Amino acid sequence: MKIFLLLLCISFSVAVPAQRKRSAKNTTTSQPAIFLDSVNIGNTIFEFDPDMMTKISVGKDDSKYPNGRIYITTKNPGSFHFLTMKEIIANYKIKTRGTALYMLDNEFIKDTSAFRIDSSYILKIVLIPGSDFSYLKKPGRLTIVKIIPRTKANLESQLRIRGDAFIKSTGKTL
């Protein structure tokens, strides 16, 4: 009887890992397959002008795509020239010292390896040195690369003056 109780106590005190089969439908970390103009773009994050989209449709899950499908159709298929972060740095001749943080439209880009942006969607790139921030302990080795996209709000905020055209159209003088 003592041996039986001893074995019973040991069996309840030992943690035995059980096999748990996780179904693909219950995974919340997996994302749906995204198709841009019928091309599967995978887990890559693509940024382009949202005005270029004509249609977005959602397909249900099936055996090949258990988390579903998202189809994005654009006005000019094949007209995009997507750049990686390394290509942006090379094309725009950006020189960063030490660590670089990347921002798009005032939000930090967390995964630069999966990030792509259409070259025509970039309005300008602003470099902000870490020394501009007085509260940083070691600001000298930090650069913030801020990508400003070509959106209606960003384009309208620019002031373009050509002779007296501004005065005639608004009635204001500078």
Question: How would you characterize the overall build of this protein?
Answer:
The chain is α/β, with parallel strands linked by helices. The protein has two domains: 31-80, no CATH class; 82-156, no CATH class. It contains four helices and eleven strands; from the N terminus they run αββββββαβββββαα. The strands form three sheets. A four-stranded mixed β-sheet has the order 2-1-5-4, with no helix packed on it. Strands 8-7-11-10 form a four-stranded mixed β-sheet, with no helix packed on it. A hairpin with a 2-residue loop joins strand 1 (33-36) and strand 2 (39-40). The radius of gyration is 27 Å and the shape is flat. The N and C termini lie far apart (100 Å).
Key structural traits:
174 residues; alpha/beta; 2 domains; four-stranded mixed sheet; 4 helices; 11 strands; flat
Q: Count every helix, treating DSSP H or I runs of 4 or more residues as helices.
A: 4
User: What is the strand tally?
Assistant: 11
Name the average pLDDT. Answer: 79
Low-pLDDT runs? 24-28
The helix content, as a percent range, equals: 10-25%
Helices and strands, in order, run as HEEEEEEHEEEEEHH
The largest pleated sheet is described as: 4 strands, mixed
Radius of gyration: 27 Å
How much of the sequence lies in strands comes to 25-35%
User: Main sheet: which strands, in order across?
Assistant: 2-1-5-4
Please state the structural category: alpha/beta
- First-last Cα distance: 100 Å
* Number of separate structural domains: 2
Shape: flat
